[in-house]
Amino acid sequence: MVRANLKKNVTITRSRSAVKVPSKFVHHRPDRLLVVAVILLCCIGIFCLASASSVVAYTSHGDAYYWVKKQLFSLIIGGLGFYILSCIDYHRWQKWGGVVLIITIVFLLTIFTPLARERAGSVAWLNIFGFSLQPSEFVKLSLTLYLSALMAKLALSREEGEKKRLNTIFWLVLIAVSALILAQPDLGTLVIIAATSILIYLVGGGSWKWVIRISLVGLILFVAFILIKGGYQKDRFLCVLKPGYSPDKSCYQVNQSLIAVGSGGFWGRGLGESRQKYLYLPEVQNDFIFAVIAEELGWWFSLIILGLYYLIFYRGYLVARLAPDRYGQILAIGIVGGLLIQVLINLGGILNLLPMTGVTLPLISYGGSSLMAVLFGLGILANISSHTSLSSSKLTS
After folding, report:
1. pLDDT greater at residue 208 or residue 338
2. I need a surface site. Which of 112, 139, 268, 379 has the fewest CB within 10 A?
3. ∠ at Cα 37 (325, 293), nearest 5°?
4. pTM for the full model?
5. DSSP-derived 3-state class of residue 175
6. Is 392 helix (H, G, I), strand (E, B) or coil?
7. Cβ distance 336 to 343 under 8 Å?
């Protein structure tokens, strides 16, 4: 079946050779609201990072703008990647998603080499020429590309044998990648990958029975890992279950975060006037940057940030709904769904609604790998939007 509303030279069929794509870049007009929301969040991120990280940056590196300079470098690369990927027909990733996944998995395996370095009990970073990279951030995107293509094939398949084969491949790939992430261990990334993959599976028409079975087994193994491993992972769960548990040790970070959010009130203390960033609240440039934002600029500005995230999620939903083929629909949901899950985990940890996992706030927290990977994914989402009516300047309801 050929979808006539795709750009010329792009043919989508129900056969196994699902996609034929043009060999050159094509010029698009992506959804403007989506692009504007992304740009605004990036600008807010740099602006707030400069204030939140100034004290710890000067104390540890002698330069109040140390983190900002590094983030700007990552933002330039991520922004360039966003533009390039928004100009590349997204159907290419249906064919090359598997290759990209293999490349990123090989990159991920380098954390088991001397190049890796430990941070907060997790060996998830590489130190290359003075730059810190986190391979798992890129695996999140490549896995989304590959699993979306797999589920698009499964959704269009007519043969039961083919469906069982694709279903088995899906879960085997997810389990293998999850095992590598757990070996670091990086529980926050593991939760994001698992939840996003299950979302892709269900949107692609997967069986709820498989989800329930795999989820139960995964939950049992996850709980067993927490109980056996113990340490800070177990303490973070106890901080949520028992708010008064170890307020000056294991739950110190969360308590300082709640103080920051609460003391800001509606209007905030004022830009640069945070008290918690004076070495009271750890990781103000990463995990807890939103707490400092709430303290300095108040809840009103926090709501603006949440509104921009909502705009990205809503436009992403419209892109998925209006995408011209099954692959575009599943891929759009995978990208925007993974972003939503990461935002919820970060904010849930800051407010002590969920255990702290070390997950950054997308586009705002310091973290070059996260920033680049998120922008790359949003660039692909922007390209999908250019194949829909959202490419016009009018708001589509």
Report:
1. 338
2. 112
3. 135
4. 0.87
5. helix
6. coil
7. no
By the 8 A CB rule, do 197 and 176 touch?
no
Per residue in 373-383, pLDDT tens?
Answer: 999 999 999 99
CB-based contact 335:378 (threshold 8 Å): yes
Residue 30 tokens read as: 């992506």
Average pLDDT over residues 106-126: 79
For residue 26, with 0-12 CB atoms within 10 Å meaning exposed, 13-18 middle and 19 or more buried, which class applies? middle
Half-sphere exposure of 55 (CA within 13 A, CB side): 16
- Give the pLDDT band of residue 232 (cuts 50, 70, 90): low
CA-atom Rg of the chain in angstroms: 21
What's the rounded Cα separation, in Å, for the pair 231 and 235?
7
Up-side HSE of residue 19: CA atoms within 13 Å toward CB? Answer: 22
3-class SS of residue 244: coil
Please state, in angstroms and rounded to a whole number, the distance separating the CA atoms of residues 319 and 32.
12
**From the CB of residue 120, how many other CB atoms can be counted at a distance below 10 Å?**
13
Token pair, residue 169, equals 């491949």
Query: 298 is written with which tokens?
Result: 């108040």
Reply yes or no on whether the pLDDT at 225 is more than 80.
no
User: What gap in Å lies between CA 244 and CA 235, rounded to an integer?
Assistant: 12
DSSP secondary structure letters along 297-363: HHHHHHHHHHHHHHHHHHHHHHHHHH-SSHHHHHHHHHHHHHHHHHHHHHHHHHTTSS-------TT
What would the pLDDT profile of 243-297 be if each residue is shown by its tens digit? 677 667 778 888 888 888 988 888 989 888 888 888 788 888 888 999 999 999 9
